[in-house]
Flavodoxin family protein (Sinomonas halotolerans), 145 residues
Amino acid sequence: MESAVVYGSQFGNTRQIAEAIGRGLGPEARVLEAASFSPSQLRRGSLLVVGSPIVGWKPLEGLGAWLDALAPGSLDGVRTAAFDTRVKLFIHGDAAKKIERALEAAGAERAADPTWYYVEGTEGPLLKGEIERAEAWGRSLAGGQ
């Protein structure tokens, strides 16, 4: 199965989660910043995982622009999953659900419910065990082909 993890990251925490998900998906998974990735690189049946930190109750601006640029039908036949990183004490938005809605508007099929990973503060670090949890999620996504 072809798979890609596309992310936006502000302080590196979301990048670390994206890389962990990629490891869980397997050695062929590509992990890229959104600006470096085009959905045209995917075929039907591919898996696309997209993530962002929550910034102002929504995805990071650069990833938001990438999502806004997705054309209707550009993800037809592509399975997708969304995640975000957030501070555990405050639920200040839900980037993962906004990402999921944008992916589905582009024609994607949901491979898993949106999920989130926790950081200690705005700049991190990630809470203990989040990297391992992200790798396990990647493995479960790979198993659901």
Summary: Residues 28 and 65 are 27 Å apart (CA to CA). The chain has one domain: 3-143.
